[in-house]
Design goal:
Length: 284
Amino acid sequence: MKSAAPQPGLPAIVLGIIVAAIFLIGINAFVIINPGQAGVLSVLGKARDGALLEGIHFRPPLVSAVDIYDVTVQKFEVPAQSSTRDLQQLSASFAINFRLDPTQVVSIRREQGTLQNVVSKVIAPQTQESFKIAAAKRTIEEAITKRDELKADFDVALGERLVKYGIIILDTSVVDLTFSPEFANAVEEKQIAEQRSQRAVYVAKEAEQQAQADVNRAKGRAEAQRLLAETLKAQGGELVLQKEAIEAWRQGGSQMPKVLIMSGDEKSSVPFLFNFGDFQDEAS
């Protein structure tokens, strides 16, 4: 019969366990920080100074942990409300692009904790306060008509407030800007009033132009009559009267005479006009 193979002894098993433990400890003694990340080393629960930036870093095994933060550009939409200088309610929604300062992640870890806390506890309330600062400088009409100026003041206020928290603002945009229903009604009434005012001005100008036209026509008629009077007073005026009478007779009409008698005297002023029909009516 063949003899059984020798079983590994206890020392070999212990040695294998020790080697495996050393290997695992060796692996966990280093941490790799990828591009776009920053790390915070904590030993026995206490954050160490100095952020772990891109690269490989040693950490005490078993007693340490590394919190990794994304320091690339983040985007969150944050609502805000405020009162304007004329005490009108104004609501807005801002899209904020920001990133964490990699050199400040240790302070962020100690004071805020997670990125979600950064947004909810820092960015959101500071957005609200910055919007109040910007809105209080102008009336609601100015806030709407001068939207770029409102955004510029908001950007300055927000940037100054967040930089001390290790948050770098890259860009903001006004996603929505709304005002109270009372102001909307006031704007509509103002537009209606302006349209009525413009209509009244137009009607007044039209009446003024019509009156001026009437004046001009009256002046024209008066001037024509003056010239006619001067013509009649001048030498040969009788001939003008005779010509007018002849023209009227030629045009006919129910009120015009049937017979025109001219005098041979050149100084005669107006032809003698009569209607035989008038005599016939009287005779009958």
